[in-house]
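WARN retry 2 of 3 for item q-0093 after timeout on previous attempt; input resubmitted unchanged.
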Amino acid sequence: MSQAIALHKPGAFVDAGTLADGATLKADVVIIGSGAGGAVSASQLASAGFDVLVLEEGGHHTRADFKMREDINYPMLYQEAGARATKDVGVTILQGRAVGGTTVVNWTTSFRTPAHVYEHWRSAHAVGGVTVEQLGPHWDEVERRLNIQQVSLDETNRNNRVLYDGCKALGLAVETTRRNVKGCMKSGYCGMGCPVDAKQSMLVTYLPDAVARGARVVSRCRVDKLVVEGGAVKRVAASVIGDDGYNVSGKQITVEARRFILAAGGIGTPAILIRSGLGGGMVGRRTFLHPVHGTAAHYKDPVEPYYGAPQSVASHAHADRGDEVGLFYEAAPMHPMLAAVATPGYGAMHHGAMQRLPYLAAHVALAIDGFHPSEEGGTISVRESGAPVIDYVVPLRVRKALLFGAKTLARINFAAGATEVGFGEFPHVLARNEKELDRLTENYDVMKLPLFSAHVMGGCKMGDDPKSSVVRSTDLRHHTLENLHVVDGSVFPTSLGVNPQESIYGLAHLISERLASAWKT
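OK item q-0093 returned
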């Protein structure tokens, strides 16, 4: 049975489960993915008068669904219930899966892309179509819409404050962060969706803006492939996700449009291209993760790392280490389930460590990967089922950087008054003072460490040379398909050295403005 659904104003949020099997949807522009890139693009293009249809694999959840419960909200809001990992299971990847994408579950930290990053891309990766100067007014607009403002020091919780105090004591550069919040209650549960809509995620900002301008957002809709005919994308073949939120229901839908935007992120976007027979070349290559290693410091007085704004302090003191891999340091919230997964050991040892959770300060070192010529990043491929495979082997250069970062975080915590610092390795490596830090030797075995990432970048590199990139930098159009664009973090040629959400917002705002102008002529 075929069902033609015409877009009309006003727009709406639509659950794909309500559509008939075999339904055909039509639009001027189809956007695949509703996170940072997709939502901003949808709002801008709908505002310009285009009929916009957004397809999202995850469900449409609102604050009433955000129960501040890890056992409920991780399966609901994360890819693979928060257990997504690289092929060798060496790096756990926390990535959102819901209307609003990862912006629904991130920790609100907002940075503009550092100017030197775009300069590096220009000189090393032929990115000539975008500059920091061009992005400036678009970041200004995004910051106004999302209420991105710098946190005052008295708004930080103790988990962040000891990072700040320790850095100051050691003479390391440190600052409070900027956050996209309004009326924040500082519950500390940002990673499980904001129960009061204080987080200005795409769920409560740009997506409602797009819908108000006539766009439709279809949730529980998994894009299987793009169908290409005559050198252009003609339609999307998609499956409807069932009531369990993960498995397909058996229903299929088709989406037709004149133009298509991929915004499914650094894993989803290349995976869709590969499933569509559009792989090869640089598709799925140069994937970067900001590999993260954490430390757990214990204090005599309670820290309670599960309450308060999760990230309100950051240090980029070691972002530039010359020929060595750079790092930046941030705090990480620790709720019971996340702490249990990150804490090594078992039985009485693990139980004892968990009993000390209220006295724990958790901090992370994030490696800035992709800037050295030897760092080619990871790759994205797909299984026979179509599911993505992330193959990222942590390079020795990055391992050494994380060792340096772990030791630095230990020194920061000792300077702030910690009684001991653990490094997450098993068997347990604990230091009670700086002299004992040598226990973490140069024989640093990454497989013994609980590494993770929440920043997936690359996989559809932008650039002006079709041989070394997937999309051109001026408008992020696919080099060979004139009606396909990629607008998300997958276009970054390297990692960023900062949390990526605002970098994606600004780029999407600029590119969608350019697209709207070009398509109207």
